[in-house]
Amino acid sequence: MARSGASPGKSFESEGFLLHRVPYGESDVIATFLTAQHGKLGMIARGARRSSKRFQGVLEPLSTVLLTYEDRGRDLCTLKEGRVTVPRTRIMEDLDALEAAGKALRFVRALCPARTPEPEVTMSLVTLLDALQEGRRTQAELLRFSFALLTGVGYGLELSRCLRCGKPRPAGRPAYVDPDKGGVVCASCGGGKILVPAELIEEAQRLTSGEPVELSDLHVGTLLRVAEEAILAHAGVEA
After folding, report:
1. What range defines the domain where residue 36 resides?
2. pLDDT of 1-24, one tens digit each?
3. CATH code at 83?
4. What is the β-pairing status of strands 39-45 and 76-86?
5. Phi-psi category of residue 101: left, alpha or beta, with phi > 0 → left and psi -120 to 50 → alpha
């Protein structure tokens, strides 16, 4: 699929999500957004700390926002104005949901390349945030998102065969998974970091394919560790 970036010197309007922000100078803010149109973009919001009228709610995480920005071909676009289109205030009232949402946004920021549209990741993030807003199982929803993120950016785990020798994984048996390498490594090739029970390997394959999966909290924790370590490894960050 062809990738495209924003054209220099033009103004754009796109929905997006705040991933990160830092103060800059006396009154400005530098923010990173995942935009639907152009993927991850850095933007400078001039005067945002002095007056929030143009950016009311836009520089806060979790909500879907409509952004108007100018791109002159530099590292940072200029955020002209914005507004919240889908508020998700209930997430802020649940510490577990807030932690899961924050982790997901950090994963996106770390794994998605700049100026690369990521429609599958964007859709998965919307699904996660809506689920957390509705009060669904926090860890289970984060797990689904994490596997969808890996698949969406082309780092889906290889769980059907050994990454080194290519030997098919025996059905109905546990398998060693090495998240750093991206999938199953058989015992003959040295094994992996995490021994995953047979039934969880099957469920992980379904998650990679985007199929619905219902797991116990214990099983969610095991697979979430696999997904999180894989994300951090691909992002070049130690778990």
Report:
1. 10-87
2. 334 444 556 999 999 999 999 999
3. 2.40.50.140
4. parallel
5. alpha
